[in-house]
Specification:
The chain is α/β, with parallel strands linked by helices. The protein contains 9 helices and 8 strands. It has 2 domains: about 140 residues, Rossmann fold; about 60 residues. Helix 1 packs across helix 4.
Amino acid sequence: MRSSPSTVLFDLDGTLIDTAPDFIRCLNELRLTHGLPALPAPHIRRSVSDGARAMIRVGFGLEPDHPDYLEKHTAFLDLYEAGVAVETALFEGVDTILMDLESRKIPWGIVTNKPVRFAVPLIKALGLAERCSTLICPDHVTNRKPHPEALFLACREVDADPASGVYVGDHERDIEAGRNAGMKTIAVRYGYIEQPEAVDLWQADIVADTVSDLAKLLQ
């Protein structure tokens, strides 16, 4: 960055934190209760950014219109809520990025499609609640990403101009939301991306292949 951004906002799963181990654990626990063998972790991991709906699709081949979908979806979310931060952690090197932003008095926040029910206890468990300047979940807005409403709200909460802010994400909807908000966008390729080469088609301002690359871009 040639000049310091007014704020740096991050997506949560697959960008700031690695939630995949707990998603994998919960899905395989649910499969075992239905007499099914555990699935390989990489098979589940690449769909984590698409949330619980994707987990039920991967784990049971069910879509929301299937009569058995709701029961399994609810059971998965209950398992996840009970152990939201058992194995979840910040990606290695991310805490250094956050400390650098804090030392430079640049407010950072989280804009996620993860509901408050899971996001709040998760960031508390990881020690981020007191450090994060804003946490915006779908519960706080009318329109989910890629609509820019959540990013606009986050910028208002930290008193930052979106035009000089940065949004970092690991999904095409994150980059689209950032563009829609008029923010500079950084796509990270280290998240839960099934086709890493597709990141180059998202029209992000910059692509960071690794956490180290992201750190250099934000310094």
